[in-house]
Amino acid sequence: MRSWERALAVLEALCERGQAAGHGWTLDAELLPPHQQQVNALESQGLVELAGREDRAELSVLEGRPVRWAARPTSYGHDTLAYGCSRPRAEPPHGREESDRQAVELIPSQMAALRVFVGLTGQLRVAPAEGLAEQVRAASCDHGIKRWRLYLTEEQMGSVAYGLWLHRMTGSAAEANRFAREYGVEHSPARASDNPSEGGAAARGGAGVGGQG
C-alpha cells in the first residue's frame, strides 16, 4: 500500500470511529500503537487534530476512564478523504478493451505538456483524440519512479505524439523524442494527411527523430 493510500485509510478509520462514538474523537483504546504513530504523522501535516488536555478530560468523564490520547480529522483531513475517495483513477483495461489499449508511462514533463494539450480542446484545429482528456484526468502517478500511467488506444497514442510535437515546436524536443523512442510513435507533418484528426497525425517507428533527447 502506498503512503497516500495508508493516509486515506487512517483518515477513513478516524471518521468512522468518531461518528460511531458520537463525539467525533477516536480514542486510544480504539487504535493500536502503530496506527497511532501514523495518526501522529498526519497531525504534523495538518490533517489530524490530537486532543488537548481539556478535551481529554471531557472525554475521560464521558468514557468513565482516563483517556490519554484521542484524535480526529481536521477540516483539511475531511476534505482530503472526500477528494481521495472521489478522485478518478486509471484502471487496467479488462476484457476486449485490453487488446485495444497500451499501458503508457510518462515522465512529469511529458505529462505537463499533455495537460496543456488537452486543456486547449476547443481552440485547436486538430483536437485531442476522443477519451484522451479523461485518461489524463484519471492518470495515476507512481511516485517511486516518478511516472504517470495511462491506458491508451492507438488513436490516443497518435494524439499524444501530436501534443508532444506541438511542445517540441514551441520549446523542447526531449519529450517527443522520448515518446518516440519508448513507444515508436511520432508525429510527422510530412507524413500526415491534410486532416491529421482522421488518423494521419502519427506514424509508428522512432527512426529519424530530430532535436535533442
Summary, kept brief:
The protein is an alpha+beta fold and 213 residues long. The chain has helices at residues 3-21, 33-44, 53-63, 75-86, 108-119, 132-138, 154-169, 174-183, and strands at 26-27, 48-50, 70-73, 102-106, 140-142, 147-152, 185-187, 202-204.
How would you characterize this protein structure?
- A hairpin with a 4-residue loop joins β5 (140-142) and β6 (147-152).
- The chain contains eight helices and eight strands; from the N terminus they run αβαβαβαβααββααββ.
- The strands form three sheets. The chain has a three-stranded antiparallel β-sheet. It has a three-stranded antiparallel β-sheet with strand order 4-6-5. Strands 7-8 form a two-stranded antiparallel sheet.
- It is elongated.
- It is of the alpha+beta class.
- Helices cover 46% and strands 14% of the residues.
- α1 packs across α4, α5 (108-119) crosses α7 (154-169) and α7 runs antiparallel to α8.
- Residues 194-201 and 206-213 have low confidence and may be disordered.
